[in-house]
Design a protein that fits this description.
By secondary structure, the protein is an alpha+beta fold. The protein contains twelve helices and ten strands. A hairpin with a 2-residue loop joins strand 6 and strand 7. The chain binds 3,4-dihydroxyphenylalanine (DAH).
Length: about 350
């Protein structure tokens, strides 16, 4: 019996893996294992022999079982220690460099404009880029024969020959959002509407698609004075200057009466633009008091309500603020250009400061 014990215990102690252990288990205490066979022979023994050998065999079986599970646990520990020793990585190593995309100047400037007007209580509205000619023209007091319609270089959307309705258009300005917003919100209302607009035109300062932001403020007693204050606040915050002189030049738009184009004082010394000083003037937007017919088209009673509107080119003010010379480059998707003029995603515009770089 001691012999058998010795043999199995030393085999278990030197087993190198779980399958070796299993083999030993079968040989010793499996159904046809050495010890199991010996237990079967108990029946043939005399009463005294059985009384002595039975407990000894049981104790041996238990001992082997314990040795097997102890060795199994030890093997598992060894395996874990081996993994801990070999599988590790250095968390202090620098991360592998990945190229990050940049925020396009148009997106950046749209965010800046939105932040500044939001601070003055303007919400943001959107409208469709494919627009009915009624929203784009008629509702804005630009009837069919009006020269403004011809001047806009409009893209028309094709209709079937059998369809007699006037064709839809790619909106030529963001002004139709005024009509849609007045219709859905009524008065009072204070909003800006940034977005894409389309005109068939292409040179250094014109692309067939570009961006505008429309402003609209309607209330019982809104005047040109409020327009002037809002625009001054905007220009100071956007161009990051304390004082700036605006020049309101009488102009004409069908949808406003009176109408004004707004210039800011600037200088071009040494080829770089400085806003707020100098002897030059730079046109930045069109504006005016919303025409009564436009209010009516938006289902707002012109006897009770009045207000101002303005429209500004986003790409244009982006070019001015960040010194980008050619508008066409905005839409070339040239990665070198995007890396140069793009913004890091964490350059979030601050409320009044625009962004400093
Ligand atoms: N819609 C005009 C354009 O595209 C810009 C404009 C001028 C908008 C005067 C206005 C405004 O709201 O009052 O050129």
């Amino acid at each position: 019996m001691d012999d058998v014990r010795e043999r199995y215990l030393s085999a278990i102690a030197s087993a190198e893996n779980e399958s070796a252990l299993e083999e030993i288990r079968l040989k010793a205490i499996g159904k046809k294992g050495e010890i199991s066979l010996k237990m079967r022979e108990l029946g043939k023994m005399t009463h005294d022999e059985r009384k002595k050998t039975g407990p000894e065999l049981n104790a041996l079986k238990d001992e082997i079982n314990r040795a097997l599970s102890a060795r199994k646990a030890a093997l598992e520990d060894e395996a874990l220690n081996e993994r801990l020793r070999t599988e590790w990585f250095d968390v202090t190593m620098p991360a592998r460099h990945r190229r990050q995309g940049t925020i396009h100047p148009v997106s950046q400037v749209t965010e800046e404009v939105t932040a500044i007007f939001a601070d003055m209580g303007f919400s943001v509205a959107e409208g469709p880029q494919i627009e009915s000619d009624w929203h784009n023209f008629d509702a804005l007091n630009i009837p069919g024969h009006h020269p403004a319609r011809a001047e806009m270089d409009t893209f028309y959307i094709h209709r079937d020959c059998a369809d007699n309705r006037p064709p839809d258009v790619l909106r030529t300005h963001t002004s139709p959002v005024q009509i849609r917003s007045m219709q859905s919100h009524g008065a009072p209302v204070r909003l800006i509407a940034p977005g894409r607009v389309y005109r068939a035109d292409y040179d250094q300062t014109h692309t067939p698609m570009f961006h505008q932001v429309e402003g609209l403020a309607i209330d019982a007693d809104i005047s040109m004075a409020n327009l002037k204050w809002c625009l001054e606040e905007f220009v100071k915050a956007f161009f990051e200057v304390d004082g700036v002189e605006l020049r309101f030049r009488a102009s004409h738009f069908p949808f406003t009466e009176p109408s004004a184009e707004v210039d800011i004082r600037c200088s071009w010394k040494g080829g770089t633009l400085k806003v707020g000083e100098g002897d030059d003037w730079l046109e930045i937007l069109g504006s005016g008091m919303v025409h009564p017919k436009v209010l009516q088209a938006g289902s707002i009673d012109p006897e009770k309500w009045q207000g101002f509107a303005f429209g500004m080119g986003i790409d244009r003010i982006a070019m001015l603020k960040y010194g980008i010379p050619d508008l066409r480059s905005f839409f070339d998707s040239d990665l070198r250009w995007l890396r140069h003029y793009g913004f890091a995603s964490l350059d979030v515009p601050t409320l009044h400061g625009g962004i400093s770089r």
